[in-house]
Amino acid sequence: MTHGTSGRTFFLDAANQNLATIPPGILELRELEEVHLENNHIEEIPQDIQYLTNIKVLYLNNNRLSKLCLQLGRLSRLEGLDLSDNPILPSWIPVLSSIRSLRQLRLYRTQIGEIPTEICKHLHHLELLGLSGNRLKSLPKEIVNQTKLRELYLKQNQFEVFPPELCVLRNLVIIDLDENRLTALPEEIGKLIRLQKFYVARNRLQGLPESLCQCDQLSVLDLSYNSLHSLPRSLGSLSEMEEVGLSGNPLEKVPRLLCKWTSLQLLYLCNTGLRSLRRSFRRLVNLRFLDLSQNHMQGFPVQICTLKNLEILALDDNKIGKVLIPFPAGTRPSPRALPA
């Protein structure tokens, strides 16, 4: 698939074509700005890649790359590069670190055990760095050079300690540390005042720092499947909250502060040991999605009847029998059942 004007091709999609090499015809399209070559069987990038001088985005994920030619480093306009699902080799590092124009670098599932310091030292324009699905246990101290970094994806690694270097990167908007081995978060996390989305599901957290309330732009917080019994009261001041995941934590009660997050639209409380909802739960009038499945509720929570914006409600795997639900006039929600 190609897109262009007046015989000039700017976009080319050659993904999923069983390609063993990059066809010479592609390398002759000198106006190309975005090329998709993912999900093929390409083993080597030819030297003629250097002639694609206008290319800005290149997807080479899920191939069989064993070599990166030096000429790849001469693509001075390249801003986005995806090499995920290819094993990173030491010989690649000088090539990657020479692409100084990169703003987005995705290296998901590339079998790396540490981030090469050369990348942190030389790629100063990175705004997105994707490193999920690797074997990382720590970050190099040189990561502090990534002052423009906005999105950092570290899901499914081996972090036992929250990387303290991240607390210096004040422009971070998204941090994904799902499925690691974290047991605590540092107080310094409060310095990330631009943080909007924070994912730390499926770790080993037993508590949260009070300073998290200083991240007052937080709108998405996923704490699912940790070991949290409660949340710090100070978090009640986070007025921008729209999506919160608390499923799989032994809460037993809805945290009182949660009912102050009146902007909430999606709330996950599956398997949290709940037997009832607080009266103040009715304040969450903007809720559209509510998961209360796999709890111990024996009666229908009447607070739900006032949530007039609710679209999806999950109550499966509780102990609720048939009840007559007294919806006040004009407030009846129309929830769609979730699959069991």
Automatic annotation (TrEMBL):
Keywords: Leucine-rich repeat, Repeat. Gene3D superfamilies: Ribonuclease Inhibitor. It holds the Pfam family LRR_8. The keyword Isomerase does not apply. SUPFAM superfamilies: RNI-like. PROSITE patterns: LRR. InterPro entries: Leu-rich_rpt (IPR001611), Leu-rich_rpt_typical-subtyp (IPR003591), LRR_dom_sf (IPR032675), LRR_domain-containing (IPR050216). PANTHER family: PTHR48051, RAS SUPPRESSOR PROTEIN 1. This is Leucine rich repeats and IQ motif containing 4. It comes from Myotis myotis (Greater mouse-eared bat). The lineage of its organism: Eukaryota, Metazoa, Chordata, Craniata, Vertebrata.
